[in-house]
């Protein structure tokens, strides 16, 4: 009978929720079904056409290698994943701090723009051989730096965009409160930019894995998925090379999904107005 | 305190340089006594928001003097002598309702226990106790504006500056918010400078209504609503909307708004909020 808003009913939805809970079953099942179809078709094709393993090994052969070499694949993933993770965290810190500086000082922004554009255009992995000679081929430093630079660029660009989204009314409010520059950054600028930072990180997460892995192709210490892929291929063990590739796929997905969840969490209150 | 809440003398505000100059305010003199409710009303571009921003020291006058409780506007801002609310609620979406109300207290270093008590009081005052832990995106426009008002009241200012705070609300919510504002003002005894473009709103809320006209923005007349037989703004009830004095004052404001030939011929101005 009453038309007033029921505060209890309205109050129930106060707990923040991830949009992930709204995902429907079909969204999950459909791609899984396609994946299964592709694998079955692949297996049948390899058997029927008698395709040689060095061209394309059968999924069953790859699976055999995966189960037989699980420990090695995991070890390799840990090495590559570690490089990618350290690189990503370092690159993210550099990207965010750089963007904070560029957002505060116009001059820095203008000075950095061409450098960032250059970094965005050159394939960072191309630097790997140079870095190996700079830091020595026995350590992972070169690989970490490659991953770091690949991450820093998208994080920088996204964060800078986020910093520029600060609304005029929030800026006025901070002025009215006579807030200091650091208070403004902490209370308004960083929270505004946070979802953008994580969007940058999500984009960068798979880049970090790719960069860390490809960097291994150019030398450096033993260990890591990239090294294992090249060495198995060099010893003609193609199913094993593919098994390591599968490990790389899983590692890349892991990075992507984790950063995606973090991004969703931090943007849960930033619905488009 | 003998000093008036606001005293504006001979204020001009000119935007832009040389040929593209826009005179937003010309020769404005205005005094708001302590505890008095004064509305600024006028068409878009008449400089009413500009005047409020000058008082808040979000902008500086080109010439003239603005004092808030006897201090220059800048000092009054640094001393947090006023609370402010804008047309957009301007809540921080990543903070809860309580977190938003608490913001000014937190920025100015009030300790946790004090903040907690004050926030509880204010949430009670604006009737949002059930929503303390909600985030702004879960509230309606009217509720968000109530949070913004609570935030403006956080430090018990003796002066409230409100720039069309109900401008984005529907008529029904608007009248309810007006009733609440009258109640809140009576409880806190604060002086209010209130910008609006609604004539009934201005008359219902105010002791005095200041009518402004654009190009150049200036004061064309002041209607003392109390002289029309209405109670002072703090003692008003919603019945005042039906009193004869109310209609009389509305008619008076209306004739001031439309009566001057300058208003009729003025080009449609830019709303320089």
From TrEMBL, chain A:
Signal peptide start and end residues: none
One BP term from GO: transmembrane transport
InterPro entries assigned to the protein according to its UniProt record, in alphabetical order: MetI-like, MetI-like_sf
Coiled-coil stretches: none
Record's keyword annotation contains Coiled coil: no
Compartments it resides in: Cell membrane
Domain ABC transmembrane type-1: 77-262
Membrane topology of this protein: Multi-pass membrane protein
Keyword Lipid biosynthesis: no
A GO cellular-component term linked to this record: plasma membrane
Transmembrane segments: 25-45, 84-105, 112-132, 138-157, 196-220, 240-266
Keywords on record: Cell membrane, Membrane, Transmembrane, Transmembrane helix, Transport
Similarity comment text for this entry: Belongs to the binding-protein-dependent transport system permease family.
Protein name: Nitrate ABC transporter permease
Lineage, broadest ranks: Bacteria, Bacillati, Actinomycetota, Actinomycetes, Propionibacteriales
Automatic annotation (TrEMBL), chain B:
InterPro entries, sorted: AAA+_ATPase (IPR003593), ABC_transporter-like_ATP-bd (IPR003439), ABC_transporter-like_CS (IPR017871), ABC_transporter_ATP-bind (IPR050166), P-loop_NTPase (IPR027417)
UniProt entry keywords in alphabetical sequence: ATP-binding, Nucleotide-binding, Transport
Organism lineage string: Bacteria, Bacillati, Actinomycetota, Actinomycetes, Propionibacteriales
Positions of the ABC transporter domain: 6-239
PROSITE patterns: ABC_TRANSPORTER_1, ABC_TRANSPORTER_2
PANTHER family recorded: ABC TRANSPORTER ATP-BINDING PROTEIN, TAURINE IMPORT ATP-BINDING PROTEIN-RELATED
SUPFAM superfamilies (alphabetical): P-loop containing nucleoside triphosphate hydrolases
Designated name of the protein: Nitrate ABC transporter ATP-binding protein
A molecular-function term among this protein's GO annotations: ATP binding
Domain of life, source organism: Bacteria
Keyword presence, Protease: no
Pfam family for this entry, one: ABC_tran
SMART domains: AAA
């Amino acid at each position: 009978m009453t038309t007033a808003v029921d505060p209890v009913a309205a109050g129930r939805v106060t707990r923040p929720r991830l949009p992930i809970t709204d995902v429907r079953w079909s969204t999950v099942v459909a791609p899984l079904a396609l994946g299964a179809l592709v694998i079955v078709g692949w297996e049948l094709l390899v058997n029927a056409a008698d395709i040689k393993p060095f061209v394309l090994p059968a999924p069953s052969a790859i699976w055999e290698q995966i189960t037989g070499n699980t420990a090695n694949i995991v070890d390799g993933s840990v090495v590559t994943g570690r490089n990618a993770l350290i690189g990503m965290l370092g690159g993210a810190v550099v990207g965010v701090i750089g963007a904070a500086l560029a957002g505060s000082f116009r001059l820095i922004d203008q000075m950095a723009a061409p450098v960032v554009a250059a970094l965005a255009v050159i394939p960072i992995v191309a630097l790997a051989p140079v870095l190996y000679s700079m830091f020595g081929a026995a350590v992972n430093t070169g690989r970490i730096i490659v991953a770091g630079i690949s991450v820093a660029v998208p994080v920088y660009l996204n964060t800078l965009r986020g910093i520029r989204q600060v609304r005029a009314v929030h800026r006025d409010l901070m002025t009215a409160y006579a807030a200091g520059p650091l208070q403004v950054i902490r209370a308004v600028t960083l929270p505004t930019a946070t979802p953008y930072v994580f969007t940058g990180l999500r984009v960068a997460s798979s880049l970090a894995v790719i960069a860390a892995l490809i960097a291994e192709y150019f030398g450096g210490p033993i260990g890591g998925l990239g090294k294992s892929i090249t060495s198995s291929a060099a010893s003609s063990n193609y199913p094993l090379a593919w098994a390591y590739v599968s490990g790389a796929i899983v590692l890349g997905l892991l990075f992507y999904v984790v950063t995606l969840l973090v991004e969703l969490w931090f943007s849960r209150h930033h619905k488009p107005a | 305190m003998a000093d008036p809440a606001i005293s504006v003398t001979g204020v001009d505000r000119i935007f832009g340089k040389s040929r593209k100059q826009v005179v937003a305010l010309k020769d404005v003199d205005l005094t708001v006594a302590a505890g008095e409710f004064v509305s600024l009303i006028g068409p878009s571009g008449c400089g009413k928001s500009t005047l409020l921003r000058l008082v808040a020291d979000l902008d500086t006058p080109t010439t003239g003097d603005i004092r808030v409780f006897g201090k220059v506007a800048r000092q009054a801002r640094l001393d947090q002598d006023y609370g402010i609310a804008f047309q957009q609620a301007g809540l921080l979406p990543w903070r809860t309702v309580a977190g938003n109300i608490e913001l000014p207290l937190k920025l100015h270093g009030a300790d946790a226990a004090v903040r907690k008590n004050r926030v509880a009081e204010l949430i009670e005052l604006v009737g949002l106790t059930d929503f303390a832990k909600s985030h702004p995106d879960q509230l309606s426009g009217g509720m968000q504006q109530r949070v913004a008002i609570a935030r403006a009241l956080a430090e018990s200012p003796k002066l409230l500056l409100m720039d069309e705070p109900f401008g984005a609300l529907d008529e029904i919510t608007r009248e309810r918010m007006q009733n609440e504002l009258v109640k809140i003002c009576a409880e806190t005894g604060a002086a209010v400078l209130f910008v609006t473009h609604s004539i009934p709103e201005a008359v219902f809320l105010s002791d005095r209504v200041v009518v402004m006209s654009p190009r150049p923005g200036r004061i064309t007349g002041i209607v003392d609503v109390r002289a029309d037989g209405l109670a002072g703004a703090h003692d008003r009830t919603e019945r005042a909307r039906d009193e004869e004095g109310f209609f009389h004052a509305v008619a008076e404001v209306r004739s001031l708004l439309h009566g001057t030939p300058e208003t009729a011929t003025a080009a449609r101005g830019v709303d320089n909020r």
